[in-house]
Write a structure and sequence with these properties.
By secondary structure, the chain is of the alpha/beta class. The protein folds into three domains: 81 residues, Arc Repressor Mutant, subunit A; 90 residues, 3-Layer(aba) Sandwich (D-Maltodextrin-Binding Protein, domain 2), CATH 3.40.190; 109 residues, D-Maltodextrin-Binding Protein, domain 2. It is 39% helix and 23% strand. The strands form three sheets. Strands 3, 4, 5, 6, 7, 10, 11 and 12 form an eight-stranded mixed beta sheet that branches. A two-stranded antiparallel ribbon has the order 1-2. β3, α5 and β4 form a beta-alpha-beta unit. The N and C termini lie far apart (52 Å). GO terms for molecular function: DNA binding; DNA-binding transcription factor activity. Belongs to the LysR transcriptional regulatory family.
Length: 297
């Protein structure tokens, strides 16, 4: 086994949280994957780092010593990289986005950014919210764009760009399609397509808070196949009668045969569109991003 930074970050997360579920969410891996990483780390070092019972996780003395060392190593590395890159414009800027971002103002703003960074190649990569957060943490991405109520990820910063209204996507033959606006309460008893908590924990939690506060109880259809990971795939699932889906308003112009979009009301749900970046992003680039996305032009 080659000891990597991700092993130390996973160890620190578990050592600080002392809870596998919270620690796994913090480093954006599944609980079994986190357990596997910790076991591999213990085997590699020949040490027992945690005492585990069915209800309790505690650091051993060796674990406490490694925690102090890991914090020092990670802090020194992160600070050093931040200082090194602070005033250097990169040759390549890796930008992540979810597929619906193409229907917002973001592509035009990125084109404007290119004008400010003529010697920097902007490489755009499509990925889910979770994939982008992982990419930002491991350095494969520099900037990402997605909807989220908040971002909790070590070494990642974010800001809200604007609020996106959520609309209902449904078959054109569905009874609710006859309404100009669909009350949120009308979703009770309806089959609703959802991404799983593992693929988008923030959106999953947001929708459950929204439904709980409004007293709405849809029939949840969670991750019914790989097609849930693309806009076109979701539209096909809706057209085939697999369920309804909540989409951001920016996608209302995308269109798909057999599928219509209706506003939601009572209440109208909104979720922030966010820009996230790794905290070692050069300061000059970050300032340009802020200027471009703060512009009202």
């Amino acid at each position: 086994m080659v000891l990597e930074l991700r092993h130390l970050r996973a160890f620190v997360a578990l050592a600080e949280e002392l809870n596998f579920t919270r620690a796994a969410a913090r480093v954006f891996v599944t609980q079994p994957a986190l357990s596997h990483q910790i076991r591999r780390l213990e085997e590699h070092l020949g040490l027992t780092l945690f005492r585990r019972t069915s209800r309790h996780v505690a650091l051993t003395d060796d674990g406490k010593r490694l925690l102090r060392l890991s914090r020092t190593v990670l802090t020194t590395l992160d600070d050093g990289l931040r200082d090194l890159r602070q005033h250097v414009a990169p040759q390549m800027l890796n930008v992540g986005f979810v597929d619906y971002v193409g229907h917002t103002a973001i592509p035009e703003r990125l084109q404007r950014l290119r004008g400010h960074l003529p010697d920097t190649h902007l490489r755009q990569m499509e990925g889910s919210t979770l994939e982008q957060l992982r990419g930002l943490q491991d350095g494969h991405l520099d900037v990402g764009f997605f909807v989220a109520t908040r971002v909790r990820a070590k070494a990642v910063r974010s800001r809200k760009l604007w609020d996106e209204e959520l609309m209902l996507a449904l078959p054109e033959t569905h009874p609710l399609a006859q309404l100009e606006a669909v009350p949120l309460g009308a979703l009770t008893g309806q089959h609703l397509l959802l991404n799983s908590a593992e693929s988008n924990p923030d959106m999953f939690a947001y929708l459950h808070r929204l439904f709980g506060e409004a007293g709405v109880r849809p029939v949840e259809v969670v991750n019914p196949g790989a097609r849930m990971y693309s806009f076109a795939g979701i539209m096909h699932l809706i057209d085939e009668g697999e369920g309804l889906f909540l989409i951001v308003k920016s996608l209302r112009s995308a269109g798909h045969p057999g599928v219509v979009f209706r506003p939601l009301c009572d209440p109208t749900p909104v979720i922030p569109m966010r820009m996230a970046w790794r905290d070692t992003l050069p300061g000059a680039v970050l300032k340009l991003l802020m200027r471009v996305f703060n512009s009202e032009d």
